[in-house]
Design a protein that fits this description.
alpha+beta; 458 residues; 33% helix
Length: 458
């Protein structure tokens, strides 16, 4: 899975340097899924409500960006590369180039321009997508090339739980939220909405893999310095890094666990699941408090997710109608097939409607995080969860924060663990499901909503 498609994971804003930034996702699915368009000048779905002044180089470039993110066709990668400076090109190369965030923005069209402020070397384009206000900040070099790009939603103002609900509903029509104190390892909800509805997890399911792993390490059956071997035949799709290693490369269990959580590395996840065994990870569902493990068994790994849900051809209709025994056979068939993904029907074709995903409700997710935070391997779990904390909280008020996010086409989830200044642990969960893609701006907006909701906890 990518978080966006780095699927996801939930998406969090980050800047690579002063000159380059894009909104990135922590996810399960592929990041670089933009196709190659042949038309150099895209047609637009709807005329922008605001006209960008194109009399300056900055204005002309922003007008072109606005056309790209509203086009009926994907942006032409060659045309995008032609206006991208070398520093920005290097910063976004891991995503597949600037065309990938542009295509993720285009997936949310219409992106309606509402304003544009600019100076000689940069500009800020304001727009709305799915009712969410957002901006694209750009800068250009002396050669006129684009050397800075940052797309992000405006930070929502959330002063009450009613406002929180309103903000959550902007992301997707089906959602849940919970905020709980952790007391003796148990979640005590202070606020929740739709907390008993079972929704997709995306890469949040990797918490169960982490829990099974650290419990086995505590039991002495697995060692942190054990070496796992990466094989071309079993590599998964991004997000992550291990899929880029050569066949036969070795990584330690510790490195795989850290990358599984902090980068949502899918190949790392599958290596750990193979080491532990699928049935061992399935048993962890009950250990960590899942109310109905049957909705996640047999448990697919991430490569199987891609092959069954998005392979060319996919196997999702067979999976949807299969009983557990037949699903085990489908997993075996998926293992024997090459990893060939149907990119033409990827972003707007969620597989979770056919049961190709991992599922839980908000109470399950809170219980899983609570187990990791307070169970027998809590110290190591908390260290790993804090590598990529997911939100930016005031360290004086929240000295610790940990996170795991998930993002697949149409699905978004995140769980946040934070310790307040008095030493109390809090867990916030979010889950969303839509019939089509949950696009870049709504995904990042969901993370900001979670971040702002911590101010309501007391």
């Amino acid at each position: 899975m990518s978080e966006s498609v780095n699927i996801a994971s939930m998406m969090t804003p980050c800047t690579t340097t002063r000159l380059a930034g894009v909104v990135l996702a922590a996810t399960l699915t592929l990041s670089a899924c933009a196709g190659t368009a042949t038309a150099p000048t895209p047609t637009t779905t709807a005329a922008p409500a605001f006209t960008v002044d194109t009399s300056t180089p900055v204005g002309a470039l922003n007008d072109r960006i606005l056309q790209w993110i509203n086009g009926d066709d994907a942006p032409d990668p060659a045309a995008v590369r032609a206006v991208t400076g070398p520093e920005l090109a290097a910063a976004v190369e891991p995503l597949g180039g600037l065309v990938t965030p542009l295509e993720q923005l285009r997936a949310g069209r219409p992106n309606v321009a509402t304003g544009f402020e600019f100076g000689p070397a940069g500009g800020v384009l304001s727009f709305t997508t799915a009712g969410i206000p957002a901006t694209i900040s750009t800068s250009i070099g002396t050669d006129g090339a684009l050397n800075g790009f940052l797309a992000r939603p405006d930070t929502p103002e959330i002063l009450s739980f009613d406002e929180l609900d309103g903000a959550l509903s902007r992301v997707a029509p089906n959602y849940s939220y919970s905020a709980s104190r952790l007391n003796g390892g148990e979640c005590e909800a202070v606020y929740s909405t739709n907390a008993d509805i079972v929704l997709p997890l995306g890469s949040v399911f990797k918490l169960y893999v982490l829990g099974a792993l650290t419990d086995e390490i505590q039991a002495g059956t697995v060692e942190w310095d054990e070496q796992l071997i990466v094989r071309d035949a079993t590599k998964s799709a991004p997000s992550g890094e291990l899929q880029n290693l050569p066949d036969g490369a070795a990584v330690s269990v510790r490195e795989a666990a850290e990358k599984m959580i902090s980068l949502s590395d899918n190949t790392a996840t599958d290596l750990l699941m193979k080491r532990l065994g699928r049935e061992r990870v399935e048993r962890q569902l009950s250990v960590m408090g899942h109310h109905d493990p049957a909705v996640m068994t047999p448990m697919m790994d991430t490569r199987q997710f891609f092959v069954i849900g998005f392979g060319d051809p996919n196997m999702r209709s067979e999976w949807a109608d299969a009983d557990p025994g037949t699903r085990v056979e489908l997993l075996q068939r998926a293992d024997a097939r090459p990893l060939e993904i149907d990119f033409e029907n990827f972003l707007d074709n969620p597989a979770s409607a056919d049961g190709v995903e991992w599922f839980a409700n908000a109470q399950d997710v809170c219980a899983a995080m609570g187990y990791l935070a307070s169970g027998p391997a809590a110290k190591e779990n908390r260290r790993i969860l804090a590598i990529a904390p997911g939100v930016q909280l005031d360290a004086a008020l929240w000295p610790y924060s940990g996170f795991k996010g998930g993002n697949a086409p149409g699905d978004l989830a995140g769980v946040f663990l934070a310790t307040d200044a008095s030493g109390r642990d809090w867990i916030v969960t979010e889950q969303f499901r839509a019939d089509g893609a949950i696009d870049l701006i709504p995904t990042s907006y969901a993370s900001l909503v979670a971040q702002e909701s911590f101010a309501l906890l007391e």
